[in-house]
Amino acid sequence: MSLCDAADLSTGFFEAFYTLVLFEAFLSRRKHVHASFYYAGAAALGILIDISNHLFSTNMLNMAVVITMELLFSIMYSGKIQFRFISAVFSLIISGIAEVCVLLCMSVFLNGEVDLIVGEGYLRVIGIVLSKTIGCILTLYLSKRVKSQYSYKNNSYWLLFLLTLLSAAITMNVFYRVLYAGADRSLRILIYVCAAGVVLTGAAIVFLYEKNLKQHMELEQERLAHIKLTDQIKYYKDTIAAYDKLRGFRHDINKHLLAIKAIAERNETAECTDYINRIIKDNVIAAFEYKTGNTVLDAMLSSKRAEAEQAGIRFETKLRIPSQLPIKDEDICVIFGNALDNAIEACAKTDRDKYISVNMIYDGRDLVCRIENSYAGSRPPMQGTTKENSFFHGLGRENIDRSLKKYSAVSDVEITDRAYSLSMIFPDIST
């Protein structure tokens, strides 16, 4: 077997590799299928692609056969049918674009005819090596984008991406056929310029759409965060109002007792019971666990403590702060609400000693805060999220940092074998 024959046979395995990488990005492996079956399936797919290339060359029938085989291979994965099809077509388009681009570039630099480059042994091998290397780079890059934080796994984005690549592939194929049929130097130069323009235009369309989509998702995240924050502040204010009402009841307790005593002395049992029921209905509410004087902070700490203890988490505090903090109520909710939510989430995922420790100390000039919690150790809780919707739930730390910047505050993360702590310093705050 010659080197050229070996290079030709490798093309099927490279295209199978593209398919495997894209399926791994877009789809999920089935739990009951061992990993070795996926690699064996990819190897078998490579052999079948080589056979199809040999039988049908590069015509449309060959493309249809290859896509069908890739879709059959995708049965080993679980996922939506549109992403199976998109992955299969991407694999074919990436391979085609890489080959045509390399061929055009070699034609430019070697100033040779396309048919001569394709037919020349060593030039053909170089072209295959370069095109498959570029294909691997493009495939791995695309896979990384799919798995990234802003993985735009929605139909409209990938449909645009697919159509853009498909248009570029068709145009490049037309250019290739014109060059292969023979063209003078001026026409060849025009084709090279047009090919570069097609690639750049496609990249610009995808980039602008992606930027717009990202901005839309960030605006949506901010809208949802604002709704959540508004509801949270309303809850705390309602709690504060109810607590103030309870304080008023305690102030009037002697008057109520005297009224009950007078009704009881008249042996009016039904009226006495009704009076007591009215008092209970109007005034029963759990008192705050904390009384720093900052009512929003007191309400939040009391609420988060109750939530933590209900989950079996020990909640410890050390507070030495003034009653009036120069921090807005909404920022208190964002900073401490997000931090404590993440701490509770992290503790719930560990079997170790579950605890949360909150320390807030004001030394007359700076406010120093430290929130420490136990965690499973597999992933620091503030370095992203383990929640299902990573985009809308993974920005807690960013929201905290955004609020901290308003007060020129700084934060620091410390990780040990069993604990994760977030420290924040609000410098030179005046009370």
What this model shows, in words?
The protein is an alpha+beta fold and 431 residues long. It folds into three domains: 3-208, no CATH class; 224-283; 295-426, Histidine kinase-like ATPase, C-terminal domain (Heat Shock Protein 90, 2-Layer Sandwich). The protein has 14 helices and seven strands. It has helices spanning 3-26, 35-56, 60-73, 81-110, 114-119, 121-147, 155-181, 185-251, 253-265, 269-283, 295-310, 329-348, 390-393, 396-405; strands at 28-29, 77-78, 314-320, 355-362, 367-374, 410-415, 419-426. A five-stranded mixed β-sheet has the order 3-4-5-7-6, with helices on one face. α1 (3-26) packs antiparallel against α4 (81-110) and α12 packs antiparallel against α14 (396-405). The longest helix is centred in the middle third of the chain and has 67 residues, at 185-251. It is elongated and about 115 Å long.
Lay out the secondary structure.
Blueprint lengths: L2 H24 L1 E2 L5 H22 L3 H14 L3 E2 L2 H30 L3 H6 L1 H27 L7 H27 L3 H67 L1 H13 L3 H15 L11 H16 L3 E7 L8 H20 L6 E8 L4 E8 L15 H4 L2 H10 L4 E6 L3 E8 L5
Parallel strand pairs: 3-4
Antiparallel strand pairs: 1-2, 4-5, 5-7, 6-7
Helix pairs in contact: 1-2, 1-4, 1-6, 2-3, 3-4, 4-6, 4-7, 7-8, 8-11, 8-12, 11-12, 12-14
Features:
10% strand; 431 residues; two-stranded antiparallel sheet; Heat Shock Protein 90; 14 helices; 68% helix; 7 strands; five-stranded mixed sheet; alpha+beta; 3 domains; single chain
Quick one: biggest sheet?
5 strands, mixed
Q: From the helix content, strand content and strand pairing, which structural class follows?
A: alpha+beta
Helix content: 55-70%
Q: C-alpha Rg, in Å? A: 33 Å
How much β-strand is present in the residues?
A: 5-15%
From the N-terminal CA to the C-terminal CA, the straight-line distance is 84 Å
Number of E-type strands: 7
Q: How many helical elements?
A: 14
Low-confidence stretches: 379-394
